[in-house]
Design goal:
The structure is a homohexamer of 245-residue chains. Chain A has 245 residues and is of the alpha+beta class. Chain A has helices at residues 81-84, 89-103, 108-111, 129-150, 181-185, 215-244; strands spanning 18-22, 30-36, 39-48, 62-69, 115-124, 163-171, 174-177, 189-196, 201-207. Strand 9 of chain A pairs antiparallel with strand 9 (201-207) of chain B. Chains A, B, C, D, E, F: InterPro entries: ExoRNase_PH_dom1, ExoRNase_PH_dom2, ExoRNase_PH_dom2_sf, PNPase/RNase_PH_dom_sf, Ribosomal_Su5_D2-typ_SF, RNase_PH, RNase_PH_bac-type.
Chain lengths: 245, 245, 245, 245, 245, 245
């Protein structure tokens, strides 16, 4: 952390190479492998024909998410949460964020009384696993919903618009888009932005444990995020269109 | 949720009545009862002369937080987390937020190898418990540190500046400061802002499960939050000065 | 513990100053803050319109209790049970005692098939938290039942008589009423007595890990307890009458 | 429970047939099978050459206890606590009682810095399992200590006197000694008494969920208990003497 | 482990002395105490008039098993699983094996929609606790089923044939039947065989953590097991016939 | 299950197409993706420079394994074990089997006092996940050990010979090699065989919940397994040689 981190192979406003492989797993109603640089996440969407108790009888659907990391997705092995007997605070924070982000673009009355469970499992981690999870999970969710429409189970697409996410942060005084792990660790401030195709914010989570930031600096970072998210939305589109024919 | 919520006894840019009672508990090194309208939280700061394993031998201190709610702090009784055998995702999310917010204004090298444990326990909840916790916990932390200075255990105040927090949100199209529980539940979007005395953002967490918001709208909310936080910082000052003589 | 403990500001047969603040919390059907010297406990009674499975269909109600301590209610911070993932043996022992004590004065057939959940949360602890909990919980229970009667949900008061509790013990050979924490720690023997307004024993729990006691000594302690409980019953009466008008 | 329970094959002041089989298990340092009527409990004492952290370096020993029931010790199968993932409140209450009862007759400075772990496992339950556990555990403890003395590990017997336990209660208005399960279930009030050979009380736990009792009635029950405990002490003596030769 | 282990009081193809005491516990529908040398296990069969959710409405019964060890069944005290809060991997492996072994000889359609829960609790352990559990559990199961037939609850015996189990292994190059604990610990390879009266294998689990074995060696061990199991089947017969009159 | 299962695209003695991709993950000391037909498992080997407490100071290494399945590796979504708060009995059984299988071919004195943790995470499941895990984990283990040798941390290869695993079973009376999920579910009997390059058995686990099998039938199945394992050993060789240059 002592050496100043200087991004060498990307421009500050450039996202990492993205690959979204749709229908990556054979069993799930929707699934993708999303790769953002060296971060790789498998996202699946599973349809269940029931809703949690608190929603029963209201004609509304539900979307919720779980998140996990393979023990050796990281540089040193992490303890397996199933063996530890509980999910960490970080895991819970992330899976709640994914769930809220997707529900923001779903018209739950059009989904009917069914639940879509999103699973995001990190295969390798190099920063930005929560934002990659949201970006990939949106595609898995749309694929699962396409299946429901094809089967005639739902009449109309309940998804109101696309949603994607990216991190932005200030590293050594420079505003950077789409932080990788060394950048994130050496970061002064770090903001995760979840945004829709129409440029509306769904979630913004800015943390400045290292160095606080002004409202102006936040606006600079949000613009950078908006720029990156546009590209991510294109990648989502391409992945979905490749399956549509 | 059907009736439009119209704030009646406060201006949209007005915070609720605040009372901060310092040294509320006899045993803790620092403690306050903070009351924001009908939300009441006991915040304590406990000093321990050791640090977590990952920090040992580095000459750095640590500040961390735990959060809880009395089962009957809410309108219908919540299950006691100790009986359930685990803390909910929401609890973990909140206590991580409190910890990060306070660490952002602490120079951990001046604290020495000791740990300050913050406990925020909600006695009654009427919205804004996490922001009230941060605002109150700052005072408890400063009181505990004052004690360490008085005892000659630390030479210099490790606190770099004051920090406080407030929620802002759009309800029925109107931007409101310091949401109470009915407003929060009926809210289109909800942003928690943690800010320092110098107007720098420590954390911003905006959620728009109901209705997304634009960057411009976020800026309006941030300005409103800044205004409210100034008042909260004054209340912190008064509480601390009342103990200083 | 080496210095002999001599009670200085109270007579051996004198209880600590008592304050019972009824309706302390806005949401609970019944609630009090009880203060016995420096011991402060929030007691609430929550009404639920169902009973545990083993009682269903029998026309009988149920009363049960949970107990907790704020982490910094004590001189050195206790680990939060919700974080530890389980309630200690001591906690379970105490909450079972509170539940039994209250059920002893409730005619469960008059309560109907509903459950009253008692929560006792210790804000500051200076000895006698379990007996203060019982004394305070009785008032919270009666307040909740008064509400049920006022709403016409139950026809007749199911409470058969008042119940309160106090500790007694031998310290340095002297029988003392209502032990505070230093007395309790330095105690040869320690008896908790739960007694009704008619002078009947509901629970007696005597422990002599330090020094065993004879049947005669037990009788001396029971007389002392009876004397203290009479005063506690008066305090309960006053608190209830203040709400009755 | 509707039929009045009338004790038929025993006098009200008569304990059930007792058998104590010493050295029942081959591996434990001390062990007994105690049978009180149809209640059968295996009690073992295991010596460990260390003490819990809070006692280290003080030259004091420790005695603690655990309690369990075989799933089919009871009329209908109980859930296995190991499968449930936690010990019930009742189990914890009982094992804490057993531990305190034994520590009351051990001079821990003579035991040296070692720990004796008592295990009481109920094979069949017909009332009075906690009192049978204490009565049996005392013999297992003495056997383990005899072994330590024989090996020269401790110089002097740390046991100050014998201890045993019995239940007494009022059933249909009649004071009965040593309640079996039907009596205990039909009981108006129920008192467990732990007493030493010199007639001193170690623990008294009286519960009157059904019908409260006066101080006079308690004294009647204590006398009955004292009478039963004398017999139990004799059985302990015989069991120990049979191994002494 | 350094001294070669030489079996002294038994022939290599000789099982340990077996005693099966039927109806050992008063409450269970079926129960035995099985003693194989110094290994003693209480096996019970409890009948429940329901089946797990996944079987409901299919007209099929279920047989499942749980396994436990008393803390002091072993040379040094094992931690109580109920206190540890979970069953070890070994425990789960064994109880799954017992369940599968018994289900293999039960025609579940003849059992009707009811469940038989087997509990195997080890009182003293000297090797072979899982095979003794299976051998004993079969008798407990048959006793419980006999009761169901006697009550007219099932028409036909659902048990298709007897099943028993034994361990075999190579110790210092010699194939041994029915290993005790020292033999098992010093063992090159260890095979548990579950076999029916008609000589069919139900389960074979061979482990060679120490020294691998060839297919020929496995066959030698299987023959040895077959020989031992015949004797165990006789013991089961005698135990059952003693109860049949 | 009603339709007879007839293997169509493979001979009964033919394994599924195998692909082993070495160094599949960037961070682990050793890793592979193993694909056996539609079963895909990521196996990693992580080196830690310490051993579990029970091995400290003996100069011996340790190899242990953990196993998990992605929630949507299966046809219907499985509950995430981290969310459930515990690993199932099946998971524990499998990870113990993987650990024993690998330790059988490791000379732990040559490994030194270090531990290799194997993680096997199933991405998609179509039968044989435990045997694929063992076959893949062996390669990951060898890759990690090659790294230790290259770094000069160990002098000599501690692996004594290759080990691989396959399942065999009788389906509709036909002995089949390498069962896929429909075959496994419709199976009369199912045997997992772990075998070394020299043809020695490390583990054999045969289960006949459906239909028991004779010793002769077991021998037929073992021969079939031996045949399949030879091919698996070749695949392991090729994967390792591709990395050796």
């Amino acid at each position: 952390m002592n050496e100043p981190i200087i991004r060498q192979h990307r421009q500050p406003n450039q996202i990492r190479p993205i690959t979204i492989t749709p229908n990556y797993l054979p069993h799930a109603e929707g699934s993708v492998l999303i790769e953002c640089g060296n971060t790789r996440v498998i996202c699946t969407a599973s349809v269940e024909e029931n809703v949690p108790g608190f929603l029963r009888g209201q004609g509304l659907g539900w979307v919720t998410a779980e998140y996990g990391m393979l023990p050796r997705s990281t540089g040193s092995r992490m303890r397996r949460e199933a063996a530890a007997g509980k999910q960490s605070g970080r895991t819970q924070e992330i899976q709640r964020l994914i769930g809220r982000s997707l529900r923001a673009v779903v018209d739950r009355s059009k989904l009917g009384e069914r639940q879509i469970l999103i699973d995001c499992d990190v295969i390798t981690a190099d920063g930005g696993t929560r934002t990659a999870s949201i970006t990939g999970a949106f595609v898995a969710l749309q694929l699962a919903i396409n299946g429901l429409i094809k089967q005639g189970l739902i009449a109309e697409n309940p998804i109101t618009e696309q949603v994607a996410a990216v991190s932005v942060g200030v590293v050594n005084g420079v505003a950077l888009l789409d932080l990788d792990y060394p950048e994130d660790s050496g970061c002064d401030s770090d903001v995760n932005v979840v945004m829709t195709a129409s440029g509306k914010i769904v979630e913004v989570q800015g943390t400045a444990e290292g160095a606080t930031f002004s409202i102006d600096e936040l606006n600079t970072l949000l613009k950078l995020a908006e720029h990156g998210i546009k590209e991510l939305l294109d990648h989502q589109q391409h992945a979905l269109q490749s399956q549509a024919a």
